[in-house]
Amino acid sequence: MAQLIMTRAYFTAATGxxxxxKILSVNTPPKFFSTKNNINNKYLILYNKYxxxxxxxxxxxxxxxxxxxSLTKEERSVFIGLLLSDAWLQKRKGWxxxxxxxxxxxxxEFLWYTFIKLSKFCSNYPYLTKVFKRNKLFYSLTIQTRQLxxxxxxxxxxxxxxxxxxxxxxxxxxxxxxxxxxxxAYWIMGDGSKRNKGIVLCTDSFSLxxxxxxxxxxxxxxxxxxxxxxxxxxxxxxINKISLKKLLVHIKPYFTNSFLYKxx
Length: 264
Fold this sequence. Notes:
Elements lengths: L1 H13 L48 H6 L4 H11 L4 E3 L7 E7 L3 H11 L8 E7 L2 E9 L7 H7 E2 L7 E2 L11 H11 E4 L2 E4 L6 H15 L3 E6 L2 E6 L1 H11 L13
Antiparallel strand pairs: 1-2, 2-4, 3-4, 5-6, 7-8, 8-10, 9-10
C-alpha cells in the first residue's frame, strides 16, 4: 500500500496536480485532481476504515460504526488543545458530545491543517459563514464533528453542568495527566498572542482559581515559569521568553507556517 501511495503521489506531482500524500484521508473533492489521473481516492485507506469516512455522505452511521470510531492519543491532545482555546463542545441530554471550531477566513491554513487531522470525526467539509460587525462583513470557516461516544472522555475532563443546566468549560486537576506538548501547541495557535518575546494565553473564560491551577500544571510538568496578567478583569497566562525557548523544540513541529510568528 505504501508503494502504491508513493507512486500515485509522484505521478500527480509530475502532471502538476495536488500531491496526494497530504490529503488522502480527507477525501478531497474531485475538482482538485487532474482528470487525466483517473484516481478514485476514496479507496485508498491509510490504516483503518474509520480514518477515511466519506465526508460528503450525510447518511446516519449505524451505532456499531459510530461507536467504533476512537481517539488516538494525538487526536485527543489536538481536541483538548483546541478546547482550551477557541473550540467548543455541545452536549444535549441523551446524546453524545460533538466538537466545533470556528476561525476567521484569514486563518484558513490553520483550520484546514486541523481539519485534515480530524476529518475522520466529521461528516462534512468546513462550511463558510459571514457576519456584519462594525459595519464590516467578516467571513469565517467552521468545522463541526459528528456526535460521538469517543468524546465523552473529553467532555467529562473539561466540562461540568452547573445548576442552570448549561454545560460549562472548567479546569480540573485531572487535566494534569492529559496536557502534553501537542495540547500546548494547539492551545497557543488557537488562543495565544505574542507579547514581549513571550506568549499570552487568553484564558478569559476561566476563574482565577482555574488559571492558577493551569499555571501549576505548566510549572510542575514542563518547568515553565508563568505569571498572571489581569487584562480588564480577565485573567491571562503569560509564558516568558525563557520558558518559551524551552517549549520551541517540542511544539514547533505541530505549528502551521502561518502561526510560527507567535513563537519565533
